[in-house]
């Protein structure tokens, strides 16, 4: 029987067991090569029993969040947080003006929480969503920032020094005790809630992961002796063409990206790109009259723009339980001005979206399996013990995409075997930026970092 053009397209996104295993093996090998990974200098996780008050800032491309994090023990936290927009004037001004502003934002927070520490310093953690060359738990030189920032006098400077100088100018008794990225923060913050957490994952517009590794396996670390360390994998940049099951649509996304051949794994699984895969496949099938035949092979202008089909539309369509798939009709009418979809068109759009969503979940599960194998050997520490391993995952794709967690668990069962997979927990992790930074400041303050 001849396979239709539509089914042929969908089948490209359906992964065989062998294809998934190649991803596991390929990423495990890249983890061994240690090319992208960055040591965090964090050598232990919180137990969930810690108490105390720690400050945190989370600096991204759009906003600065400041937080006072009260560790209450028993995995409980109380958070007082403020959010401040980073203006274009600040982004293109001087470094001194930027860091003075950050200090002012922290001073505002301290007034709200009415902290009275006497002569004691307040310890603070920093989540910094820009490239730095980290040299210690609380030191790192700022590299190119991007995201609209143009602060030449900041480049190459130690982030801790920049912050501490501003605190001195503003008479703030704050000590920078830790600098982390958001993935490390996700792992640490969720470990406080669930001490069995061994992996932290970000799965949103982009993706990354951190896990606990033996220091003997961290080739980029040359500091004091220790047994283990949280390792930032930068797995977004991992993935080689020889084992990634790229379709022609994946290759097209990569070809027109800012840096072709870079972050190929991320381009196949994350929120920025999943919707674009749907759009490219739809455009191809419309032109070949394999879907929306009433358009007679002509692609509407509304579907021609890059990134026009949002991953949010995929979530909306997969959220509907009705076999009529009315959400498909609504999305195309409201967002693209396309009417006249037949019942078969709606089913086909749903099937395409479902296949792309399932592929993302399977590939992320494969990557998580690679981390488990790398950290623990092929036993995954599950053969001789009933120990639970928790993976904390933050991000809109995991949180909001329908059935994503279930799809990941099904993929893990296929990769690890059902018995092993029952000892893996996938849990939503939130606010890793501020809570994670505060917790790492606590860990560092009490000697859990090098």
CATH class of the domain at 51-193 and 433-444 reads Alpha Beta
According to CATH, the fold-level topology of the domain at 51-193 and 433-444 is: Nucleotidyltransferase, domain 5
Major sheet, described briefly?
Answer: 6 strands, mixed
Helical amount: 40-55%
Q: Estimate the mean pLDDT confidence.
A: 90
Number of helices: 16
- For the termini, the CA-CA separation is 64 Å
| CATH architectural arrangement of the domain at 51-193 and 433-444 | 2-Layer Sandwich
Number of strands: 13
Q: What is the N-to-C succession of helices and strands?
A: HHEEEEHHEEEHEHEEEHHHHHHEHHHEH
Structural class: alpha/beta
According to CATH, the homologous superfamily of the domain at 51-193 and 433-444 is ATPase, nucleotide binding domain
Rg over CA atoms: 23 Å
Segments where pLDDT lies below 50 for 5+ residues?
Answer: 378-382
C-alpha geometry: globular
Strand content: 15-25%
Strand arrangement within the widest β-sheet reads 1-11-10-9-12-13
Describe this structure in words.
This protein has 450 residues and is of the alpha/beta class. The protein is globular and about 70 Å long. Strand 9 and strand 10 form a beta hairpin. The chain starts with a helix and ends in a 5-residue tail after the last helix. It has a 6-stranded mixed beta sheet with strand order 1-11-10-9-12-13, sandwiched between helices. It has a domain of 155 residues: Nucleotidyltransferase, domain 5 (2-Layer Sandwich), CATH 3.30.420. One of its GO terms (cellular component) is cytosol. Its EC number is 2.7.1.-. It catalyses: a D-hexose + ATP = a D-hexose 6-phosphate + ADP + H(+); D-fructose + ATP = D-fructose 6-phosphate + ADP + H(+). Keywords: ATP-binding, Glycolysis, Kinase, Nucleotide-binding, Transferase. InterPro entries: ATPase_NBD, Hexokinase, Hexokinase_C, Hexokinase_N.
